[in-house]
Batch of 4 targets.
Target 1
Amino acid sequence: MTTAANTPATTTTTSRTREPAQTQTQTQIQAQAQGQAQAQAPAPAPAPAPAPTERRRPTLGWRLRFGFLALIWGFSFLLIKVGTEGYAPFQVTFGRLLFGTAVLAAAMTVKRERLPRGTRTWGHLAVAAFLLNALPFSLFAYAELTIPSTLAGICNATSPLWGMALSLVALSEDRPTRVRVAGLGLGFLGVLTVLGAWQGFSGLDGAGTAMALLASLSYPVGWIYVRRTLAGSGHSNLSLTGAQLLLATAQLAVVTPLFTSLPTSFPVVPLLAVVALGALGTGVAMLVQYGIVAEVGPTTAQMVTYFIPVIATAAGVAILGESLTWSTPVGAAIVLAGAALTQVKPRTRRGR
């Protein structure tokens, strides 16, 4: 999720919403865009005579997989930071997409899934790949050249806030309520707290912070686009996501040589960080997210968004030795509280 690291963040944010992020989150986007009912569809009704059928239990409980997902998406910002210490930001993003695509390609081979067909579908996927992968992943990589991974992780948590604001304009079914508008205001107050607005944003790299916030804005823009263009296309989530990552990889394959030169050396630790970022933080994370959405639904699955900045902050401070002032955790808590309020759905009035 920067995915969001991904990508990070969830789809219920546009309604809302990664994935995200990482997020945001792109897997959650397509779970909704393709029709969450498909992901949550009940098994075919058993024949009337036999006794109740046994449900197959997953190898790991969804709570364990949920924790694993939050962990790898939270660590994505640390991995981006480590990767950019040895490679250019575009190279980190290209490697992330390449290894993530490889994981999804392997999963599609095992499940005998095919890539989607149709020029129109591929055209929409190319736009989605740019908005949900190529652009935000690259922005986060460039941002972390000048800002700590902790701040990048907190900026990623603003995706639900951007999504809420955009959905009020772009999605007619999302009606503003007092609680959701209050959550929007509270969330952006938290952003100002994290950035130390009362100190005049001193000691803060404005360009890096702006890129991280722009990356978090790119996710809900992509979610809305996917929802309007790819919902009900008839293709599976895995097929669409695999094609989307493939297109994003192709986009970076074109851009990267134009703005970077081939590395003269290949530092091992940054290289391993890029591999982990792509294979785990992008590829495996999406597969895990599919399972969680199918088992407990997108509403519960999207809650992973609120754990990502906590883990990103803890990892940055404990492993990278990044500094932490009181305004960072306090502001992050306010951001998350605001984001949670934006997800409160209006109560439907019951008829008498």
Note: The CA atoms of residues 150 and 313 lie 4 Å apart.
Target 2
Amino acid sequence: MTISAADCPDDARDAVLAGMARRARKRGFATPKLNFAHRNHPEDLQLCAPHRMALLPLSTLRRLAKPDGCATKAPAKIELPALSSVATILGWRFLIYDKRVLEPIAAAHAVFTDQGGYRLAELNEGPYVTSSPKALQAPSVRRAISSDADDDKPNEPLLLLAPAIYFAGLWIRHHDSDKDFILPMDSNLLPAFVNVKPTQVLSVLLQASLAVPTDGATAG
């Protein structure tokens, strides 16, 4: 799968490859599909579809939902900020494709280090691995990130994560933020794979953040 990535740095890809090689030498992979493929046909594994990740921590969502420290306003009544001003860029995500099964079997996350480089932070085979190609191949996404987009400027796909409330969506970030949209990756909070404006997503996430028990607030 080829997509227009936002200048994916070689350092991020190299960090993933080096991190995977170290794990393979030391203890193998805990994820079963990747472990099987790497043991039996490592030459058929390929990093594809690099895209950046953006995080909405629970603390940020709660601060926006309760700007005065109390939930006197419903989130729908709160003046919502631009998504780009509250989401934190974490690094890069790669899908790991197995050429023998012609689909991604895992995802690798390269996150920033304190020294300004990248390190392999996570390898996972969660549900968003298989839903990512569907989101990336959605017609609206393909149009937005293609080189022949209407404004001649390919737009950037990012994986938007709010882990404390189990939300992930493909955020298509335009040069004109008014044209941004998000495709939820499942139907947990919003209809899956349906274009939603960032303000609507933020409103739903703010409401959901208030339902997270205080003693579980460390997630995200």
Note: Confidence is low (pLDDT under 50) at residues 1-5, 216-220.
Target 3
Amino acid sequence: MAGRNETPRRVVVNREGPILVEGPVEVVGDDGTTTRSDRFVVAICTCRRSRAYPWCDTSHRRRKPAESRPDDDGRQPEESEEEPRP
């Protein structure tokens, strides 16, 4: 744990993207594994589509969120399905 004399880390939450955290950071996963990054800013995946999880690999950009599609039937496409192009 960081000492109280250190400057607090800045965390930026993006509605349609990753959480940006000023580094270096350690992320503890739900299975107890610890992953460290020494970068000055890291992007933490919130969509769980990243192949580099817990780090964001911009996989969230492949699909638009359901609420932004006017013709959405509320069903999430399967991974093997392609989304229709406008």
Note: The radius of gyration is 16 Å.
Target 4
Amino acid sequence: MKKEKYFAQARNKYTDYRVQKAATLMEFLKEKMPEASKTKLKSFLTRRIVYVDKNITTHPDHPLERGMVVQIEHNKQKNTEFQNKDISVLYEDAYLIVADKKSWCYKYSYR
């Protein structure tokens, strides 16, 4: 009697869509997900979970051509903003964070 091996299968991290005709990204998403509102589709772009040919794309008017692959990531957290009652973020970009903190809060430096 032969033993069967069972392997756990991981859930796909992305939903893949292949572009069949030229369109903008927003038009394409609306066609693939007709039940989703325009606000919901824009939130996908804002949350940076939409990839076009493996590159994050945030602009709704990004042009798509036939043969490109659009991916939607499943596992990104919906709310990634920093929340703390003692520290508030005044400004943030890709390279700098400016925070206002209480005087008794510790400061941390990572090198």
Note: The helical segments are 25-32, 38-46.
